[in-house]
Amino acid sequence: MRFIFKTDYDQDIRLFKHGGTKFWYGLLALLLVAMPWLVGEDMRDYYLAQLGFIWIYSIIGLGLMLLTGFTGQVSLGHAAFLAVGAYTEAILQKHGWPFGASLTAAFVLSGVAGIVIGLPALRVKGIYLAIATQAFGFIVEEILARWDSVTGGNEGLHLEHIDFFGFPIASEADFYFLSLGLLCVVLIGTVNLMRSPTGRALVAIRDSEISAQSMGINLARYKTVAFALSAAITGVAGALYAHKLQFISPEQFSALVSIQLLMIIFIGGIGSFHGAIFGAIFVISLPEAISAAKDWLPPSIGGQPGLEPTIFGLILVLFILFEPLGIYGRWLKVRTYFSLFPFYRRAMFKRQKAYMKSERLR
Amino acid sequence: MLNQLLQLALSGVAVGCVYGLIALGFVLIYKATETVNFAQGDMMMVGAFAALTFTEILGFPFWLGVPAAILAMGLFGMLIEKAVLSPILGQPAFSIVMVTIGLGTVLRGVVSMVPGWGTDTHALATPYSGQVVNFGEVVLSIEQLTIIADTAALCLVLYLFFRFTRIGVAMQATSQNQLAAYYMGIPVRRINMLIWGISAAVAAFAGVLLAPITFVHANMGFVGLKAFPAAVVGGFGSVPGAIVGGLIIGLVESFAGFYLPEGFKDIMAYIVVLLVLVLRPSGLFGETRNKKV
Amino acid sequence: MSAAALLSAEHISIRFGGVVAVDNVSFEVKAGDVYTIIGPNGAGKTTIFNLISQIYALSTGRIAFDGIDLAGVRPHRVAALGIARTFQNIELFEHATVLHNLLIGRHAHAEAMLWQEILFTPAQRRMELEHREKVERVIDFLDLQHYRDSLVAGLPYGVRKVVELGRALCVEPRLLLLDEPSSGLNVEETDDMAFWIDDIKNEFGITVLMVEHDMNLVTRVSDRVLALNYGKAMAEGTPAEVQSHPAVIEAYLGT
Hints:
Structural class of chain A: mainly alpha
Strand order of the largest sheet of chain A: 1-4
Distance between the termini of chain A: 41 Å
Largest sheet of chain B: 2 strands, antiparallel
Order of helices and strands of chain B: HHHHEEHHHHHHH
Oligomer: heterotrimer
Number of strands of chain B: 2
Number of domains of chain A: 2
Structural class of chain B: mainly alpha
Strand order of the largest sheet of chain B: 1-2
Number of helices of chain B: 11
């Protein structure tokens, strides 16, 4: 068991609370940086490509976690922000903008989209907000498909390799480091935000709007901030995403994608930073695992295109039924088990029997 | 000109009836358990496939196979409630929404894997497909008339059912304060199960009505997404509102498809719902209630 | 409005449809006093709180805080003016720790500047530590050390009421609105509450406006009392005066 002897308030604020955390995260950082050299030559591109996707999805996860996990605003159309970022990047690159500028533009434009889509949030809550965001998602998708002159419609857009301030991002390893770097920036920014007054205000809005107001929190301002930041972060991920695939079209940003994004934060563990990353790992790894397992399954099941969504849906339902804290929740329980050994009791994390409280009267 | 308008109106009303029925299905669930069932459209899809199975594959006559399918779906709905929804009641609304989304995904996936159903598009043969009746200059399709008539009939049945049984009041109680409903001796779990059963049956009914228009395939549930705008327009939590909302959305879509540029028809429902949410969030028949602190 | 009045309500009323919840009520709360509103349930007491907090808007009349008319003040600006409140049915942030809840109470004094926060500059760090110091003083005052890092969701009712009080104190208000501070508390906890209210008044100099049912507590801590019934004022004066008023005895206290 570890006892942390606190002598300073600063220790509570610090990112790494004690030596042990620093050590493990340091090791992780080392591992990630060394990854391209640790993996075998032949599988390198494959692994680095997958990891690259994980970083991108982690950034999206953080963006969505900020909005839905921390501020409690359900966003069923989040793929729209991904699309704004991706298309901004694609279109601006075509016009010769340097990567730094186009990425900033993607950040800003997605943020603006977030503010626009967040406007209903200032007036409606809960399920109505979910439906409003879903409606926006559909409208954006349709605009992307119809506005041929700018977006190329259903034909889509192609992208060139990134030119990162003179350094071409051409190989998988290059892209791996770029997205990892951006993920770190977004992660640190988000963590800093959440340990500050704004972050606390967002959580307050999630838990009780009325008392948040009584504490001086301007609901409209902070909801807008949440939407804007969340969308902007997702837009950055969208720009990276566009470059990774080197081709984008409206159907990559459909309602089904929005659902997939929600699965990231939900299965990962809602309300935590780790959850975003675990969720991303899960969402990227599962299809690979299914493909690998297909060799063992009879072709009647394995050969079906419907297998993947079935398993995703099933896992989502099972998680909600049995592990609502997500992968991160399970991780915490395991870690607590080992750190408290042999004093761990299952009842420590037992859910209180809850009765449905009417959300309409919230 | 009038002919044209009438045609558009009729097809709008017909499609609107289907939207309304799907919306009705999840307004029922919402009123009882404050759960929004995002899988309602997919349950409609499964209902259509069930009807297909009973009539085409198993060879039952239409008037036997369809009610059997609806009944089967009712039982399926109750089963889903018992297995999946009941254990998580009391968790935050967002979790429950995610469960229904997951459910819908599983239904779509599984249906596409069932042999005989798969990813193909099937036609459901109905006694009234393809026929038309001439009303002077206006040509009306029997399909559309049937949809409208059947919807009206079902609404009447449901109205009588909820007005003259104790279930309606019990539903209200459980949706507002579940703990208190328990204390009052209301069999909350059974009521919830029953509501899901009825909802699923209504969804199946809608599926059968829709089948001649969109044909039966694994993705036909996406039509159900338009039912959300319908429910919002009518006022979430209002049963007549669901139907009225559906009709409005259906009509708006129909006219938009003709008079507005291409692409508007598909998103008209969503533009309407955004307008409603900005101007009058409680919809036509809904109520706004503020929490007393 | 007299010189030392911190809060004055002049002929305030509000109607909800056909129901007049508060009917032509006037009162003044002097700075440094503990002013209690009593009355049967449904008399409009919490409604008055909601009117002060700008959750509801007045139908007629005027509420002034330190001379400033509160009409048109947005709900979230009320805390910045120096008014904090607790809620009858406890509106804490359930999924956060007690410390977190109290820190949110500091929000009215926190200049939240996005870029400074995202970069977590040394200035930001300093501000965070200052807020923490202030919160710790409240924790000390209310003896909440034991619960500092516990999630609110698992805490017993009595502790939550104290946390709610603490959160309001973190706002560093000039006027504290306490809505039934002793409801649901046992004798010992109510005793603690009485001492705290005394300290809040004497040590911190905070004016307290309270809604209460427990007449012992009322008599013990209040300077003045207002009795309401069906939204109308019945009697106003010192606790002794109001307690012996015939209308109050008939409507509310009993013999």
